[in-house]
Amino acid sequence: MRDFVPEDLSAARDLWGRCEGLGAGRYDDDASWLRFLERNPGLSYAAVRDGRMVGTVLGGTDGRRGLIYRLAVDPDVRRSGLARRLVDRYLESLGQLGIDRVLVFLFDDNVDGRRFWRAIGAVEHAEIGFYTLDRDG
After folding, report:
1. Measuring CA to CA, which residue among 21, 2, 3 is closest to residue 104?
2. Predicted TM-score of the model (pTM)
3. Whole-angstrom Cα distance, residue 70 to residue 8?
4. Residue 1 · residue 45 · CB < 8 Å
5. Rounded distance, CA 92 to CA 106, Å?
6. pLDDT one-digit tens code per residue, 43-86
């Protein structure tokens, strides 16, 4: 496991394409991810095995809470504890910033993701609505 760097974006996109339930939106272009990484240094990690990217956690912070956007583990290496190690590394980095709470973004139909977060003790907040508003309408 190591820091996620801008040069990882292509391999990460390949990984994300192998992981159902992640989705991609119009703001998932390289320029947007590069701004995200620049704004949140030291909070995103990559797991590489035999030269192949097998895991990512792209995390940030709003200064008060942590935010996880892309936790992904290659289907071939799931159930190995890698997702938990990626999350723990991110939580450790947040702790160094004095941040103790993390928000996780996840599509409703991401069954494996929902199972994972529940298994590690995350609390689902069905009572909270989530909205987006684009500047250009």
Report:
1. 21
2. 0.89
3. 13
4. yes
5. 21
6. 999 999 999 999 999 999 999 999 998 899 999 999 899 999 99
